[in-house]
């Protein structure tokens, strides 16, 4: 029997962002949520996705499922990163449309923007320059996802929206020694150094590059907020050909300061040194979030408190690598 609540499919509910979206929806009393594990539903398989939507009568979709990873993973598996992500997006968006789903939120990534984009990065800078080579296949897939949603809106009148988060961290993160992003990688390194009483932790690069970090539950709240905006408000603040919205804090920090803060949170008492023979990468990567602020949403979690929660989540994880 159908309930009065919308039937919401969260694709990727076990991931960092998907699990946070489920937490936020539940906190709002929205409990008619449909999820599937990878073993239950292979999103790269069109036939399986078609059968799923035909059977489940979904009203809304949060498309948080994606193949993700750090620089090492992106460099090692570029074909998988572009193929898997493009197939997931194409299957979910197309089959959602086929079965009459009017509302969908696609979650992208700030890596869609040019490597040397003007700072802070505005939404209209999309496709205005060369992408970062190390994650270009992933970025291209995410750009295709945005344009997929915009194209279905233009041709079929759907309400498919996109949000582009900055660097995320928090409960549910990936702490793999090779495939994780910067904050989970630092948490693990400092934790292991503390346990081994290592005298020094060496950080690649000068520590001067600046990055922006957003606590994942803030990202989830922003996603639900954007999804729930009435169409008139959303449309008045976006453009049919640039419909995505940046999600971030509007503030950044140096990698050096981040490393020192993570070390403090973890309780590491040794030295932190920087290997300046290693590359720094992009000097700065900060999203312009003025559009999101004008829509009435701002991030709430301070970085130090978010790192405390992330470390406690790391201590409670059952994953061993």
Q: Helices and strands in order, then pairings?
A:
Elements: E1 8-11, H1 16-27, E2 33-34, H2 46-56, E3 60-63, H3 71-76, H4 78-98, E4 103-107, H5 136-156, E5 159-165, E6 167-169, H6 182-196, E7 200-204, E8 210-211, E9 213-215, H7 216-228, H8 231-236, E10 245-247, E11 253-254, H9 255-266, E12 271-275, E13 284-285, H10 290-294, H11 303-315
Parallel strand pairs: 1-2, 1-3, 3-4, 4-5, 5-10, 6-9, 7-12, 8-13
Antiparallel strand pairs: 8-11
Helix pairs in contact: 1-7, 2-4, 4-5, 6-9, 6-11, 9-11
Spatial strand order of the main sheet: 2-1-3-4-5-10
Q: In one word, what is the shape?
A: globular
Subunit arrangement of the protein: single chain
Give the percentage of residues in beta strands. 5-15%
Radius of gyration: 20 Å
Distance between the ends: 43 Å
Mean pLDDT equals: 94
**Which structural class do the helices and strands define?**
alpha/beta
Q: Helices and strands, in N-to-C order? A: EHEHEHHEHEEHEEEHHEEHEEHH
Report low-confidence residues grouped into runs of 5 or more: none
Our count of helices gives 11
| Helicity level | 40-55%
